[in-house]
Amino acid sequence: MVATSFTPIASIIGGALIGIAAVLLMGFSGRIAGISGIASRLLPPYEDHEFAGRLAFIAGLLAAPLLVRLATGDLPSQTIQAGPPVLVIAGLLVGFGSVWGSGCTSGHGVCGVSRLSMRSFVATAVFMATAIVTVYLVRHGG
Amino acid sequence: MRVLIQFVIGVIFGLGLLVSGMSDPAKVLNFLDFGGVSAGTWDPSLAFVMAGAVAVTLIGYRLVLKRPRPLLAEQFHVPGRDDIDLRIVVGPVIFGVGWGLSGFCPGPALTALGFGAPRAFLFVAAMLAGMMLARWIAGRPARSGIVTPAG
User: Fold this and answer.
1) How far apart are CA B86 and CA B81, in angstroms?
2) Cα separation of A113 and B37, whole Å?
3) What are the residues whose beta carbons fall under 8 Å from the beta carbon of B37, sequence distance 6 or more?
4) Which of A6, A100, A116, A132 to mutate to test the interface with B (most CBs of B within 10 A)?
5) Domain range annotation of chain B
6) Fewest CB atoms within 10 A around its CB: which of A125, B10, B23, B69?
7) Å from A134 to nearest chain B CA?
8) Residue range A1-48, pLDDT digits in tens
9) Do residues A90 and B130 make contact, with C-beta atoms less than 8 angstroms apart?
10) Residues in Cβ contact with B59 at an 8 Å cutoff, skipping those fewer than 6 apart
11) Contact B31, B46 (CB under 8 A)
């Protein structure tokens, strides 16, 4: 386990930036800022003609750390503790589950909760609970 | 024009993930680790990420959705469903296990690609495969003409 420090101010500012992005995407394009929805629709089959816009949004996500590195010469800390086999299994579960449940932390947890959607309240409560139980079992179960 | 704006919005979203600490799986896992509360290793920061994001979006959506249409699109695409079926529970159960195993959800994982970490590429490749599998399974009955009851 890697210790991390409590960062309430940075986290609330970062959260507000995520919110601003969600509001801008709705205001300009009329779309929910759900990352799993945007990413999964980059894959076939295609149901509309929004491919370029979705790709641009995802490219922006990837560009953010590159811009931070250009501007400050440094990157925020990032520690991936899981090994390759666990990452593959976790990736499959996150990808499958987000599409099966029509959303992820952003689409349900931020956008859906902000729309006061009952489906998103249920989804958010369920994935928070199962993630907490999973971490508990991995760290304290054995 | 809209493509350029969506790139900028993606950058803002990504900066939010970086500034907030969401892009660090170690921080996410320490937030999810309620067993660490008594040990003093629990990191409640991510509750502040969600509070900040929801506060802004809750107010912003109310202002934006009052308008007749988006600035650069024909209409708002907002999910209209409010029924609780099996998929809205089973999907998040599966998602939560993967999130808890890795500390990655889709946004931070994609942003992590910009860090150049090989393990992030592995996660994202598996995530895209999982998404394709789910879309394929979900789309199969419709294509074959078999209608399954919801839930």
Assistant:
1) 14
2) 26
3) none
4) A100
5) 1-78, 83-151
6) B69
7) 5
8) 899 999 999 999 999 999 999 999 999 999 999 999 999 999 988 888
9) no
10) none
11) yes
